[in-house]
């Protein structure tokens, strides 16, 4: 997604020896020819599952390319790796979830390939793998389930609408998150799936504009959950000592006008710019105005 067609043509030329001036259609044909061969030779095909259907014991895979279908049909063994939150009660629920996923993901009414797999090849059938395994991943998901506030993030159907609407994601791209789940939903769940201390920064990388919440297919309160993560990380004591002290000082200053009025703007500039080292890593100097709001008010209206 983040490579231009020229980038792809160059990469193909380097790796596959093709002409670097190929058109997108020609590149697609090269990819198809090269990959088909690999699918046919593979012993094992690994896919995810968009949904796991409880009543019929099946998995549902949704895609626009057909590679998922090739992975589950051609190799001898099909392995499915999927999160436990993908479970839906019944086959009839797909009537809601398939169009929801397609519309919010890519604006299609229905995705190009929708496959339901109920198991390996049965006697008398000509296609399909000899064996099929479904691996249900927890990987921290039950932590999210146990947390009453963040539980709703498990409703996510991974449509990607919140990513496309997010001004941060649109500027920095998915790789920058350095985690499988990027964008707003990734920032909400990653600190719980991995650990808060190491991944809390993702919840801070947000303007809290609320675009994500507005577009979410299943109405998850994403921007509020980002705030909740920040709250939890502070409660758990994950913030550095200097930050905690800075907020304490700030609180006292906000509660006492006399503290706010203390010292000249030159002195305040010096203190703040000297000690807010982390804050200043990616920002310019803070400059206090010559006169405080309180002084301006007094000059204009007296001591009212
Ligand atoms: S959080 Fe909502 S919008 Fe984002 S991927 Fe999940 S379902 Fe789609």
List keywords for this structure.
17 helices, 304 residues, single chain, 4-stranded mixed β-sheet, binds iron/sulfur cluster, Rossmann fold, alpha/beta
What does this structure look like?
This protein has 304 residues and is an alpha/beta fold. It folds into four domains: 1-41, no CATH class; 43-137, 3-Layer(aba) Sandwich (Rossmann fold), CATH 3.40.50.10420; 141-235, no CATH class; 252-301, no CATH class. Helices cover 49% and strands 11% of the residues. Helix 8 runs parallel beside helix 12. It has helices at residues 5-16, 24-41, 67-73, 94-106, 141-146, 161-165, 167-172, 183-193, 196-199, 201-204, 211-215, 222-235, 241-255, 257-261, 265-275, 277-280, 293-301, and strands spanning 44-47, 51-53, 58-63, 77-83, 87-88, 113-117, 131-137.
């Amino acid at each position: 997604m983040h490579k231009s067609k020229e980038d792809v043509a160059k990469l193909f030329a380097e790796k596959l020896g093709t002409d670097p001036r190929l058109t997108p259609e020609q590149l697609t044909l090269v990819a198809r020819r090269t990959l088909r061969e690999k699918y046919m030779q593979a012993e094992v095909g690994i896919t995810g599952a968009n949904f796991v259907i409880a009543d019929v014991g099946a998995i549902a895979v949704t895609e626009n390319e057909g590679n998922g279908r090739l992975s589950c049909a051609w190799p001898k063994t099909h392995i499915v790796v999927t999160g436990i939150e993908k479970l839906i009660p019944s086959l009839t629920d797909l009537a809601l979830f398939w169009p929801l996923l397609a519309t919010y993901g890519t604006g299609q009414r229905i995705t190009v390939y929708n496959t339901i797999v109920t198991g390996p090849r049965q006697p008398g059938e000509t296609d399909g793998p000899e064996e099929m395994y479904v691996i249900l991943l927890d990987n921290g998901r039950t932590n999210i389930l146990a947390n009453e506030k963040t539980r709703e993030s498990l409703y996510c159907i991974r449509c990607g609408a919140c990513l496309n609407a997010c001004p941060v994601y649109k500027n920095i791209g998915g790789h920058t998150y350095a985690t499988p789940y990027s964008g707003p939903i990734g920032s909400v769940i990653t600190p719980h799936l991995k650990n808060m201390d190491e991944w809390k920064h993702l919840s801070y990388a947000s303007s809290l504009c609320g675009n994500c919440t507005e577009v979410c297919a299943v109405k998850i309160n994403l921007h509020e959950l980002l705030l909740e993560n920040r709250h939890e990380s502070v409660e758990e004591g994950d913030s550095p000592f200097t930050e905690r002290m800075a907020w304490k000082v700030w609180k006292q200053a906000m509660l006492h006008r006399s503290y706010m009025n203390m010292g000249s703007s030159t002195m305040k500039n010096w203190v703040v710019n000297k000690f807010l080292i982390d804050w200043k890593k990616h920002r310019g100097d803070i400059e206090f105005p010559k006169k405080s709001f309180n002084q301006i008010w007094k000059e204009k209206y007296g001591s009212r």
